[in-house]
UniProtKB/TrEMBL annotation:
This is Cystatin domain-containing protein. It comes from the Eukaryota. InterPro entries: MS5 (IPR006462). PANTHER family: CYSTATIN DOMAIN PROTEIN, CYSTATIN/MONELLIN SUPERFAMILY PROTEIN.
Length: 164
């Protein structure tokens, strides 16, 4: 057989891609370093910095900007929850449990008037960060409750507090 087949010469074919890759790397040396696995090198890192700062300051209850769904943003806002009445009832029952824990057994009934905001996150256990309003003897008060729905099918409420 005549020709320039690589199999006839006994050597592997040339890899032009490798040469092109080397050229691309040298062209990009002057560009800002970007690592898709390191959010500190992302173009929107300021959003992440603000997000984490607000998460720390509010214990997960409040943040202005959500950087988007990714593993670096573990707590997300539940937008549009109002369209699901059964879910709202479930969240109200969690808020009611939290209020009973907060006030203890004082014999007063406090109605949950409104669910203001829900943030959520988790993979093993699912955690809700609920901001809600109650009627406390005719006065409207705003509370926040962190409610953990565990894999063991238990409900834990590590935080219930007045919103400041």
């Amino acid at each position: 057989m005549a020709g320039n087949s690589c199999t006839e010469k006994g050597s592997p074919p040339e890899k032009k891609l490798k040469v092109e890759d080397k050229d691309n790397l040298t062209e990009e040396k002057g560009k800002e370093y970007y690592d898709p696995d390191d959010w500190m090198t992302w173009p929107n890192k300021d959003v992440f910095i603000k997000y984490y700062q607000q998460l720390r300051e509010s214990d997960g209850f409040e943040f202005d900007e959500y950087p988007g769904s990714c593993m670096f943003a573990p707590i997300y806002p539940m937008i549009g929850f109002e369209r699901f009445p059964e879910f709202v009832d479930e969240i109200k029952s969690y808020a009611s449990m939290a209020i009973k824990k907060y006030f203890g057994n004082d014999g007063k009934e406090r109605d949950i008037k409104e669910i203001v905001r829900i943030n959520a996150g988790g993979c093993r256990d699912f955690t809700y960060y609920i901001t809600f309003k109650i009627d406390n003897d005719g006065n409207e008060e705003t509370f926040q409750a962190k409610v953990e729905d565990t894999i063991e099918n238990t409900i834990e409420i590590p935080i219930c507090r007045h919103k400041v």
